[in-house]
Write a structure and sequence with these properties.
Length: about 400
């Protein structure tokens, strides 16, 4: 009797595990969100089959930024004083030993975030900070509130209108400071000369840290970096008090230049920045020599870090070549031609390719041919193309893998 019961129990457990495996199917899903260069529209494409999942009419030209969770994409339209929010339809949740994925249709949320010339949208945790260049404020929104239809926000006075940035760090906010003593032409915004720390009451803590021409910011692990003419300014959290600000001066032997765009490593603490038009620089704030300069064959068009393959960075240059850069050695390991040449001469907003990493491929917009080119992350060879109406330009990728219950 006892042995029969054990055999029955084992068989029942096998059936239960089989049913559980069937019910908890593992699925991978990636979506591309693509802004057009001329038409006020954002398209959502399924990476697997290229099917258009949505076409979202907005107000004007949009810069696209994905939230850290990947549940929302912010379409910032500086010229239209508007930011639209798109629900991506992909929600990943971490359960320790595995992740769950919930897949629904993407949608343009029925709300608009309005303000005078929104510049940077900076996602941080489950919030996003939108800096208004001509509004003189930075507003912090909860992603959950936006998904529920609310544009309620916390506002921070940035002292005066300027093209700046605000980044949260714990209970504090790091905010760029305009140089109001500098002479500016009528209608122009003042330059930036530093960074200040503001507490939860909106009051400045300590002195303004010098960061002339501040432009470009990124976070990596728990620290943040800002591009300056003197070097890169690092902000580090300190338990129980305001963040610490440390300037990393450029090496004296470096050619003239500065960092103006920054990307932050995800699994490792480091930054990748531009240094002029035809160089990039790897930045390790903890190293004795924090900078590693890398010469490019021609001027840089766009670059991206691979969030999963942490040693990989990808740089597209104006000769149409894509370069695989090893972020540990600082060497260009491989280069392949992926598009026709796209010159950097002309307006900064002219239609040129942009990069987004989606799993094991790099998605590259090719506005001249109305395509998104999918390139293998290892070989840098094109594996297929996705036709896209109009002139595909800005692009972000969201997705991943998880169990579907």
């Amino acid at each position: 009797m006892h042995r029969s019961f054990l055999r029955y129990a084992a068989a029942s457990a096998g059936i239960a595990l089989s049913c559980q495996a069937f019910a908890e199917e593992e699925k991978q899903s990636w979506r591309l969100f693509i802004g057009d260069h001329t038409a006020p529209v954002v398209r959502a494409l399924d990476l697997a089959d290229g099917k258009q999942l949505g076409k979202f009419d907005i107000t004007g030209y949009a810069a696209l930024t994905a939230s850290e969770s990947g549940q929302t994409v912010y379409a910032v339209q500086s010229d239209a004083d508007t930011t639209h929010v798109i629900r991506t339809g992909i929600a990943l949740s971490d359960h320790g030993e595995h992740s769950d994925i919930e897949i629904t249709d993407p949608a343009l949320l029925p709300l608009k975030i309005e303000g005078k010339k929104p510049g940077h949208a900076v996602p941080h945790g489950d919030h996003v900070v939108i800096f208004y260049d001509r509004g003189g404020v930075a507003n912090t929104h909860s992603e959950d509130a936006l998904l529920e239809g609310s544009t309620a926000h916390k506002s921070l006075d940035t002292t005066a209108p300027h093209h700046g940035v605000a980044l949260p760090m714990g209970d504090y906010m790091l905010v760029s400071v305009p140089n109001l003593k500098a002479e500016t032409k009528a209608g122009d915004l003042p330059p930036r000369f530093g960074l200040r720390i503001v507490d939860s009451k909106g009051e400045q803590v300590g002195e303004v840290a010098t960061c002339t021409g501040l432009h470009g910011e990124a976070s990596s692990a728990k620290i943040a970096a800002f591009g300056c003419e003197e070097g890169v300014l690092i902000a580090s959290p300190v338990s129980g008090r305001e963040p610490k600000l440390t300037m990393l001066p450029y090496d004296k032997e470096f050619p003239k230049g500065k960092v103006g765009t920054l990307l932050g490593g995800k699994a490792m603490q480091f930054f990748l920045g531009n240094y002029g038009d035809d160089r990039i620089v790897l930045i390790d704030p903890d190293a004795e020599k924090p900078y590693r300069l890398i010469d490019l064959p021609t001027r840089r068009v766009d670059f991206a870090l691979d969030p999963a393959q942490v040693k990989n960075a990808y740089v597209l240059t104006e000769d149409g070549k894509l370069h695989l850069v090893d972020t540990l050695s600082g060497e260009i390991r491989k280069s392949e031609t992926v598009t026709e040449p796209y010159s950097k001469d002309g307006h900064w907003r002219d239609p040129r390719p942009r990069l987004a990493v989606a799993g094991d491929v790099i998605a590259i917009t090719d506005p001249r041919h109305s395509l998104v080119r999918l390139v293998d992350t290892q070989s840098l060879k094109e594996v297929r193309t996705l036709p896209v109406e109009g002139q595909p330009f800005t692009i972000v990728a969201v997705g991943g893998s998880g169990l579907v219950h």
